[in-house]
Amino acid sequence: MQLDGRVAVVTGAASGIGRAMSERFVAEGMSVVMADIEGDKLKGVADELAAAGAAVHAVEMDVADADQVEALRDEAVAAFGAVHLLCNNAGVGSPRPNVSTSPALWRWVTEVNLLGVAYGVSAFAPHFVEQGEGHIVNTASEAGLTPSPLLGAYHATKYAVVGLSESLALELNGTGVGVTCLCPELVDTLVFESTRNAPAELGLGDPPPVDIHQVEQWMQTVAMDPADVAADVAYAVKAGRFWVLTHQSTLDRVKRRNADLEAGRIPRGVR
Predict the structure, then answer these.
(1) Quick one: CA dihedral 35, 38, 40, 44, positive or negative?
(2) Domains (ranges, CATH) in the chain?
C-alpha cells in the first residue's frame, strides 16, 4: 500500500516502537493520529513532530476500552477525513511466574495486549473493507512464536495476537485490506517498565529500572533500535508482507520449537 498522502493511526505512540512508527510514517508523507494512555508524554512527542511540520493529532485513550477505541476511529476520520493504516501497537509486559500471576494481573495484560488488538480490528476493519483499501499492523512478539519462563501472561496474549492476525489475514484476503504481524524480539523500549501504567488496584508499584544490556546477555541477542523496527514495518506495509521478524534468531528459535513439537518434548525456551 502506498503511504504518501495517507492517514495512519498508531496506538502506544508515546514511546518505543509506537513513537518510532509515528515518526517513520510522518517521514513517508503520512498524516498520523497518535494514541496513548500516557497523555502528557504523548502530547510532548506530538508537539515535537508538529513543530517540525508534521500533520499529527494526539488522542489520550485506553485500548482496553472498546468504546474508546471506536471513539479513536471516529476522531481520526474527523481529523483527517479517512484512515488507511492501523497499527495496534500498545502493549504491556508482565514479568511474573505463572504460579504467582494474580487474576487481576492476568485480566489487565489480556485486556491491553489481546483485547486492545481485537477492539482495534473490530473498530477499523469494517471501515477499511467498506472503502476497499487499508492495512492493519498488529504488534505481537517473538514471545508469540517461542516460549520462555516467567512471562506466562505475556506469552499467552502474544500467541493469541499471532493467531488473530493469521486468521484475520485469511478472512481479508482479496478485500484490498492487508495484514502484517510484527514479532519483535528484543527492542530498546520501556516494555519491561510497563507496570507504570497498571491500575492502582493491582498494587504493582513503580517498576524498577531495567538495564537493557543485562536483558541482552540473558537473551543472547542485541536490542534493536525502534527506528529500525519502524523502517521494517513501513517496508512490509508497502510490500504487502505479512510477517515482520526483527531478528534472525527468532527464525532459529521457531525451527527449534517445531523440532520439539515433532519430538513431543518440552520446548527448550528462549535460550
Answers:
(1) negative
(2) 7-263 (3.40.50.720)
